[in-house]
Specification:
The complex is a heterodimer of chains A (288) and B (425). Chain A is 73% helix and 3% strand. Chain A is mainly α. Chain B folds into two domains: 225 residues, Rossmann fold (3-Layer(aba) Sandwich); 162 residues, Rossmann fold (3-Layer(aba) Sandwich). Chain B is built from 15 helices and 18 strands. In chain B, helix 8 links the parallel strand 8 and strand 9. Chain B is globular and about 65 Å long. In chain B, 56% of the residues are buried. Classes of the chains: A mainly alpha (288), B alpha/beta (425). At the A-B interface, helix 1, strand 2, helix 9 and helix 10 of A face strand 9, helix 9, helix 10 and helix 12 of B.
Chain lengths: 288, 425
Amino acid sequence: MEIIVYGIVNSVSLALMALGFTLVYGISRLPNFAHGAFYILAGYLAWVGIRSLNMGYIVSVLLTIFVVGILGMAMYRFFLIRVRGMPISEIIASYAMGLFILEALRWKGLKGMTFTLPVIYPGTIFLFDVPVDYQRLLVVAIGAGIVAGLWLFTKFTRLGLALRGIAQDEQAAMMLGIDSDAMATVATGLGSALAAVAAIVLLPLGNIVVEAGYQVLIFAVAVCIVGGLGSWAGAILASFIIGFAQILTVSYMQSHFQVVVALLAIILTLIAKPSGLFGRQKQLEERV
Amino acid sequence: MGRKSFLCFLALAFFPGFSATLAPLANAQQAQPIVLGAPLATAFLYGWDAERGMRLAVEEINAAGGVNVAGQKRPFHLEVIDTRDLEPGVPVSDALLAVEKLILEKKADFIVGGPVRSEAALAAMDLLSKHKKISILTTGALTPKYHERVAEEYEKFKYCFRITGESKWMVKEIITCLMDIKERFKLDKMFIMVQDVAHARAGGDIIEKLATEKGWQVTGKEVYPTGTTDFSMGLLAARRTKAQVLLIWMDMPETSILLKQWYDMKVAALPFGSIIAAAEQPGFWKATEGKGEFCLANVVNAGNAPSQATPWTMKFYDAYTKRWGVEPEGYGTSSSYMAPYVLKDAIERAGTLDPEKVVEALEKTDLMGVYGRIKFDPKSHQVIPSLDPQEGAVGTIFQWQAGKRVVVFPPKIAMGQIQLPPWMK
């Protein structure tokens, strides 16, 4: 039972970390390697709002999500737009931005254990004799809520449909008057805001440390590669595969090997099915 | 007597006196400084507290006139380079570059402090030997291999000293403390959680072996990579196997997460940090919102938590608190503070900075310091430990009780008794 309960929590946590990355790639084909940095930046901004400026939890959290979303849009509009369409340059540029943010935070003094976010609801309950704190249950609830919200957004709103249009066929969408760069800007902003939401939900379970930014990026990339780049359904399925694999590894092998699981998943996927579970990018080459 | 004449008289009367008073200070300021190179992981507790300890000692020594090198007073000058060797991935090469830079570019006369991670400290030994630089390890590296190598290849590694503890002695202290707990509370089941780094793995293995020999049942053991942020499965395993003590040996700040998760899950096992960086710090209470109460932490040397080990202990404690606005935060603070004093003592006895002579002088050190009597083993250059501050360097284990760090071991310096969390009673 422990494995099921904590497997679900771990899987949804991975999905939360990866959704923003998948969204940006799915729409604009842009691998945002600054994703982990936005995650930590959001944690830090929320901490400043709550602990330093005493702005209250709700205000700080909403403001953080908004600011990080705007920063994501600005990053695309002022930097990434210049290298769009050049995959290697996109990776280098976004990774450089991420490095800059993370190392600047480290330089600013983001270190040690003093930077923590409060849990949304304190306390623990026992599910089938397994102790689980409310924050972990909230992770599952918020994760499910975000997936549902994104599905509704892309199915029933003009902006969501435009984003899907660009994701499906960029040139056809442009012929219908959809601005590709504007949609990429929105997607990057939305992806960054999702990183902020993930940070606010997940960071109360730990500390705000720079190293977590690199870890989140690795997990996001692993989930996206296993699931298939740009595929939401694939990302969610991959989150559950990797999430449960990690928990099983810890339970039956050693915690020591937990970090290897994500990297092993990337390697195995690239060998067996480079397009991932639901990816369509390289299917033709694979068939050939 | 006119005003001018009176002033001239005063100047003539007092000038020699003033000159005599100010001469040593002026001499110390003008004389070429003795450069102490400190390779430290400054983003981590064991780095920044060591730097603060050293700076305080250097400031105090310089304010008192400096170091008397064969009649000439010379000030200490501290150069710190961030080694980053406590980061995940253990970048040993970065730490070695830092040591080399201190020696070649900063012209360090002595190396004090780190490298902090055992792997990096061991790797740096050859470099120190090559440049014949005396090094006093003050923080981080706990591996017994360090002083064993000095003993095995004395001529090559005689420049390496360690003024702080090492894991074999620490394990002895921990086992003694654990036996007290076993006797007092009738606990005999232990779950071991260690970090995947050399000193922690070695420490965990030795504790497992010795504790089993002493009648403890080890119900499980988990090894966590540096930077782990989720310990829930390990805690569930401890709960499932009915462990009564959680033996933790980790130097990463994420251990505060472990303690928060322990509290949230109400795991009925007393957390015992053989090394637990996060719980050592005064800020731990606030960071965990009090969830870390009852956690025991070993800070290796007295003076890193308040006690009356020697007359110098609280004098140092108060001076550090006044200088930095925070209490000594954990392992590496008092030992790093003592290193410049020990070096000053040895240099003054040697009357030179010549490494061969200073090595000989360091081997004859006998100084009552912040954490007891400081003497080095002449063969291994490891500081001689003891449970009595009158006999050797004494350690400290404290427990978080109502927001305070209360020293509970060794008995000679204890300020209180170990308590169990309410859900264990």
